[in-house]
Amino acid sequence: MNDYNAKNNAAATGNSFKFQTDADRMKYLLGSKGQSRVSGYYEGLYASIYALTVVQDGNTLPSINGPPATGWGNRLWSGPILDAINIGDKFLQDRTSRSDYLGVEIAGYVYSAGASTLRLNIISDDGVMVYLNNEQIIPLASWAYQGPTPINSAVVPLNAGYTPIRILYFEGGGGSQLNVNFSIGNTRLQNLGCACFYNYKQM
């Protein structure tokens, strides 16, 4: 297996490969299997895991603006998510060799062929925030130290085409959990590899 394929296989199977540079990321996006090229968009959302620098005291929150704002440190891992968003201790440990004091940014686009609606059902431990087209769509109180907490977004309008979505999550100490389920219109989506989520627009 050559170097390109080894990296692609490691990222696609969830092994602890880390994209060291944006060039490595692009190498993956342009060469991986199981992706859909539609008008330059690539299937799934794109996740990055960061070391956090301000949560060790169990009180101070990392910035709700995400990286590179206050509290978000070095990027430890990046890669696409094609399955359901189901982040826990094992997901974090396998990718960073740790499961505490971490922040996750998940970003990309939601695609809809026509005007529709979007609803999210979330369980989060600790904090989570979701932006759709740069608008916050879950309560500010969700960005907090908390045990596993159910959080539901409002039913929000979804325009036809590609709408930017960004999910921020942080984990302090103890157990970690982030589960996000999406519904577009009346359809509940089981995973991100369903021609509805994309993570990069080729310029």
- β-strand amount: 35-45%
Based on Cα principal axes, name the global outline.
globular
Look at the structure and give the mean pLDDT. Answer: 81
The CATH architecture category equals: Sandwich
The total number of structural domains is 1
CATH topology: Jelly Rolls
Estimate percent helicity: 10-25%
Question: Distance between termini?
Answer: 30 Å
Secondary structure tally: strands: 14
- CATH class type: Mainly Beta
Number of helices: 3
Q: Would you list the SSEs in sequence order as H and E? A: HHEEEEHEEEEEEEEEE
Give the helix/strand class. Answer: mainly beta
Largest sheet: 8 strands, antiparallel
Query: Radius of gyration, Cα only, in angstroms?
Result: 16 Å
Uncertain regions: pLDDT < 50 for 5+ in a row? 1-20, 25-37
Description:
This protein is mainly β. The protein has a single domain (36-201), classed as Sandwich (Jelly Rolls), CATH 2.60.120.1560. It is 14% helix and 43% strand. It is built from three helices and 14 strands. It has helices at 3-12, 22-31, 89-96, and strands spanning 41-43, 45-52, 72-81, 85-88, 102-112, 116-125, 127-132, 135-136, 149-152, 156-158, 161-171, 177-184, 187-189, 197-201. Strands 1, 2, 3, 5, 7, 8, 11 and 14 form an eight-stranded antiparallel beta sheet that branches. Strands 4, 6, 9, 10, 12 and 13 form a six-stranded antiparallel beta sheet that branches. It is globular. The two termini are 30 Å apart.
Outline of this structure?
This protein has about 200 residues and is mostly beta strands. It contains three helices and 14 strands. The strands form two sheets. Strands 1, 2, 3, 5, 7, 8, 11 and 14 form an eight-stranded antiparallel β-sheet that branches.
